[in-house]
Each structure stands twice: as structure tokens, then as C-alpha cells.
Amino acid sequence: MASFKEIAATTRQRLTGGHRMCAGCGATIIMRQALHSLDPEDEVVVTAATGCMEVSTTIYPYSAWKCSYIHNAFENSAATCSGAETAYRALKDKGRVKANYKFLAFGGDGGTYDIGLQSLSGAMERGHDMVYLCYDNEAYMNTGYQRSGATPRGASTTTAPAGKKRLGKPQFNKDLTGILAAHRLPYLAQSVPSRPNDFMRKMRTAFYTEGPCFVNAISPCIPGWRIAPNQSFDMAELAVQTCFWPLYEVIDGEWKLNHKPKEKKPVVDWLMPQGRFRHLFKPDLRQDIIDEIQAEVDRRWHELLLKCGEGA
Amino acid sequence: MAKKTIALTGNQAVAYGMMQINPDVVAAYPITPQTALMQKFADFHADGEVDTELVLVESEHSAMSACVGSSAAGARTMTATSANGLALMFEIVYIAASTRLPIVMPVVNRALSAPINIQCDHSDSMACRDSGWIQLYSRNAQEAYENTIMAMRIAEHPDVLLPTMVCLDGFITSHGMENVTVYDKADVQAFIGTYEPTNHLLDPELPVTIGPLDFSDYYFEHKRGQIDAMNAARRVMLDVSKEFAAKFGTRDYGYFKPYHLDDAETAIIVLNSTGGTVEYVVDELRAKGEKVGALSLRCFRPFPGEELADALSHVKAVAVMDRLESFGALGGPVYNELRSVMFDMDARPKIISRTYGLGGKTVDNEHIHTLFAELKTLAGGGSADQHGYLNVREPAGSSA
Q1: Interface ipTM above 0.90
Q2: CATH class of domain segment(s) A4-307
Q3: Strand positions, DSSP E, A32-171
Q4: Considering CB atoms only, which of A60, A65, A80 is closest to B66?
């Protein structure tokens, strides 16, 4: 497959520079790769949930979007997209719209795992020809790093902070991709921005598969994960290598593992470099919590291998 | 113009109007008492009498969200709801208006919970009075049908581009069977014309960003533009009413319907179906030589303040009946806005407020007779309570 640079040169840049996203942010990379996976002759309508990506790219009177874009509210990116997609079908049938449009709804984990889950579930169940892309940075980063349903066990957030008595979020993260798999979509996948070939192939498959498709991409957040701007790809990669965030896809109900690490790394390798887990190591090593996290990662990985027919 | 009279409930009449409008997209969710309306429209859809794309969403929040997406994409878009459904939409109701999307939404008025109640009052639509939607109210099924058609024209006018609610009383109008005169679909289609959207999502030549982040350097100015649009609706509404009357041979709806108001010494102002009850009592009292009148307000947003003041300037005493309670306020919203307008009149009527009919509580002729009697006392120099409640059992020891 061609490099991202080569693909970018032959496809349309629909999200330009000059926006206010952080240097190194996973979400911007995710969105650029997603849009470059479209054929240049196709138009796209993007619907946004309130979040970093939304506020940072459209500060009036500026917009970083070269394509059609609408932000409605926080919890309804999918429903809004379903309305636009329905309008397209109605107007196309009547000959009032000529161009070919694709429909991309996006949201962060707050707008997808939590407040937007009903809207997403409804839109997927109704079978709209659209793609929902979640950039999962594992907390409400836009409003200052508050805990969400996607925040991993043990992470310190501003609403579930590490203190003298409590050590960050007590619960494990919700398995949203699994919830979407239960919707029996024609296509869904989990990916990372650090592997453009994997991610762009999945976005392309989602765009060019008829019906509702879903892609979940882990999105390292520089200030929220308390990492350096040049660490976002490393953190995404470690999430894959530790099997915290496996790469897989479900095609018409068939589960397929896209990457099996030669040597599965311990989850501590992913936790340790991130400031949001620092309290698990200092002042005291909380091996008990790290072990709990490892056990849950192992359990989910085992389940996934079985679903993918990989044995365990 | 060809027309025929058929028996329809209010819900069926509105659904019939929607069928004749044949919107590109309808997104809706069922709620009593709106259900029969959407079911009737679904029948038209199933029988191929409309080529509307119907989106049967999982909540009213998603209904209005999908309407925003659809209307922003340039499609003629409708929905319908009641009470708690409208409350669940509330956030997006504001966004639809602020995004200047001409969505038309029948609201079958029902009391908001709690306690849960499915019957009529106006707490639902009145809770949206500051949302930026145009609000039309309907005395009966005929008016609900005709308001629905006119609403499309008003909403889509290039100087307006604001969403519009068509309100009708739950059960009283929505489920009551009436003789309704309906017009030919082709004539309705010719009246509403085709919608030519600008700055929409499906124009590859001009991709637009809709719904950007708007800070203090522009937000107020955008609101200012929205205010101008609402003010433009005043003129457009009158023009559309006149044109409708000329084309279909109806009464010119205007902002309100006066009834024996010209020489009235006392009058009652009311919205929706109770207007018919008040007119009936006016007839009874007129037969006895009493100079009484009524005014049914059709348009609450924009509020036709000057025109109301003008129409009521000669009346000695006026009662405003509001079908909701604005807790802690000094009477209901129609009363307060009308009273505010009257403050600047040289000779102003005495004006009192009566809350009535919450949660479907009956308002009978006798209650209207009692109110006219109170107004007569007031007009004759006597006194009456400034604010009060019709037909409610007062708690023991209450000072109300």
C-alpha cells in the first residue's frame, strides 16, 4: 500500500491546517486519515459531536473544513447524520442533488460511549448508509479531562482524581466496539492512528460498504494522558502491543483479528509512560491494581481470540 | 378552488395537511396524543400517497436532531410531538431556530409531567416560547389543517427561515371528529411552492460549515439577525394569510380572530380550542344584550403586541386565560405580555389573569359565564382578583 504521504498527494485535503488542535493530538491525525481514505470524486458530509475536534476546527468566522460540515450538539452526531443522509436519499431520488455523497459522523468517547450512545444505537439500527467514527481519547478531554465510560481502570481524571484515599477510576472501560458488534452491522473495526495502512483501509471499507458502519480508533491525548507531543504514536502502538486495544474487524458478523503481537507486552509498559497512571507507581507501587488491569486485559484478549477463531 | 368537506379528527386533519405538503423528510417518535397524527401519516406513506422519507427514530431528541440534519441538507422537513417529547427535544428546538432551519412541527398540546398526565394544557409549547420558533395556535381541526399549510410558507420565506410550531389542543382537538374542508393536493402544492434552500450541506460548489463555535465577538450579532428574522415573520405571516384567504376562500387568519369585539365592553383572550367555548358563551350573552367579545390569539410568536393593544383599546375590562402556570410569576405568559403592551396605552382596559384547564381540567360554559360576570363588575368600577384559577379545588386553608 502507498504511504500516507503518497495517498494524501492524490486525494483531497478536506481538513486543512490552521486549526487549534494540540500538537501531536491523535484525533486530528485520525480525521485527516479518515478523509484521505475517500475517493477524490466523492463528496462528504461530516457531522460532529461537541468536543475538541469540533471546537478547535470551527471557531467562527474560521473553519478548517473544506467539505460540508455540521455540528448540532454533543449527544446527537449520529442522529444528525442520519437526518442529512435521509435528506440526501430523498433529494437524490428527486434529481435535486447530482453529486455522490458519503456521510461521516464523528464524536469523541464522551459523545459516543456515554451521552451519544442512544443516538448512535438508533442510527445504526435504522440502517443509514453512513460511517460513525469514534476517536476514543478515554475521557472528556475538551472540558478538562473528566472521567468517561471509556476511561481505563486506574487513570486519574479531574472528576475521579488520584488522591490520598482513592486512586483514579475504579471501573474498567466500556467495550463499545463489542456493543456495536451486537448491532450486527455490515462492517465495524477497531484501529489506531499510528498505523495509517490499517486505519485507512478500515475507513475505506466502512465508507464503501453499504449500510451503517462503525470504526473505533484509540486517540492518544497529549494533556489528558500527560504525555509528550511526540509520544502519541508510541502510546497507540503500546496499546496494540499490550493487547489493551487490539486491532480487529467484524465483517458481516465474522470476527477477524488484524494483528497478533509476536510477544504480548505487559500492560504496565503502556501504563508507566503516561502521567495519568503515575500514582500507580509513585510514591508506592500499586501492584494489586496493575494486576487487576492486567487480568482484565488478558480476559478480554482471550475472549477476542475465541471470537476471531484464533484459539487461545 | 376545488374543495370537499370530510369528517376528520384534528390529528387526521394535520396529517392530511402533511400529506398534501408531501415533505421530503419526516422524522418522528410516538407520544400520546400525537400518535394518531403520525400513524395517519404513516398510512399515507405506506399507501404511497407521499414520497417522503420517513425516519422512525428512537427518541424525540433524535427526531429533532435528524430534522436539523435533514433541513440543513436542504430538504423540506417536518416532525410532530407533544409534552414530554417536546421537553426531551428542548435543547435541539433552540438549535433548529438558531441555525435558521424552516422545520414545521405540529405540537399536540399536552401537560408536562409530573404528575404524568396525557391531557391538554399548554405547558409544553409555552416552555418553548423563548426558543426562537414561530408559534401558531389552532381553535379547531380546520384551523390546525390550514395553519399547517400556511406554516410551511411562513417558515421557508427567505426573510424568515425560522422553524414553526402549529399547536392544537390534545384530545379536545386532536381526537375530536369535525367537519373539515380540505383542498386539492395540487392547489396546496401550488400554494406552498418548491423549497429553494441556500447554504445547505449538499452543494458541492459551496461546502458550508454549519454550527461553528461562536464566542462573544459574534454570538450576540448572530442573535440580532435571528431577532430580525422573527420580526420579518410579522409581515410575512400577514401576507401568507391574505394570500391563503384569497386562494382558498377562507377567513383571513391574521394574528388573531376577534369575535364581537368592535363594540365589546368586556372581552376574554384565549388560545386554541377554548376560543370556541368562549365564543359560544359570547353568543349566549349577546342574545341577552350584553356587550361581550372574545379574541382567539393565533400567533403567540412573534407576539402581535401593537395590534392586540389596538384591537382591545376600547374594551373596559379584559381577562386573559392562560392554560399553564408560570410558577412564581404574576399570571401566565399571554397575560403578562399583553399587560406589558397595555402599559403604554393612553386609556387602557383593566386586565386580569385566569389560569385554567391544567392537565385537561374541564372548562365549561359556566366558568366562562362566571368570568364574564367578574369582568362586568370590574368594568362597572368594582373589583376582581388580579390573578386567579378557574375550576380548581383549593387546598384547605389556602389564601389563593
Answers
A1: yes
A2: alpha beta
A3: 43-48, 68-71, 101-108, 131-136
A4: A80
